[in-house]
Amino acid sequence: MSVSLARVTSVSPEETCALARRLGAALVPGDVLLLSGDIGAGKTHFARCLIQSLLTMPEDVPSPTFTLVQTYDTRAGELWHADLYRLSDPDQCAELGLTDAFETAICLVEWPDRLADLAPAEALTLEFSAGPEDTERRIILTGDPKRWAHLADRVPA
Ligand code: ADP
Ligand code: MG
């Protein structure tokens, strides 16, 4: 069952970063976060903050726009960051190793609509959208409340 779990308003990049760090601290391998929303909505910013908070050594976290995926060794285990904007065929996900990573790693996936029916049913979706102010963003979290109970106390009420 997938329901709207939380609606967050972030008024600044730093506030989005803080949310990313809070959620990141509770993630375990097998957790898949689908980051949807228009260009500039804040998907990569969120992913970068989350990844940096889990790295043991400082490392650049580039947008995977051209490479499609970037992988990291983090203190929570292996983490995959994907940007599927340029994905031409969902079957490419198996070739990239992403479909296996859904089972074994923490995965953050931008442009998850490109996955079509390969998107894991258990994933948590974060839908980013612009707010009325320049630095305002809405983030709607949707997923199975039981599957994502470990994140419940990490989202502002
Ligand atoms: P996307 O990956 O969704 O295309 P990016 O994360 O690359 O978007 O870019 C988002 C841009 O919006 C960044 O330059 C970021 O600093 C800016 N921004 C402004 N306000 C916010 C906010 N509240 N949360 C996230 N990003 C914000
Ligand atoms: Mg991006």
TrEMBL record:
It comes from the Bacteria. The keyword tRNA processing applies. InterPro entries: P-loop_NTPase, T6A_TsaE. It comes from Thalassococcus profundi. This is tRNA threonylcarbamoyladenosine biosynthesis protein TsaE. Belongs to the TsaE family. One of its GO terms (biological process) is tRNA threonylcarbamoyladenosine modification. Keywords: ATP-binding, Cytoplasm, Magnesium, Metal-binding, Nucleotide-binding, Transferase, tRNA processing. One of its GO terms (molecular function) is transferase activity. One of its GO terms (cellular component) is cytoplasm. It is found in: Cytoplasm.
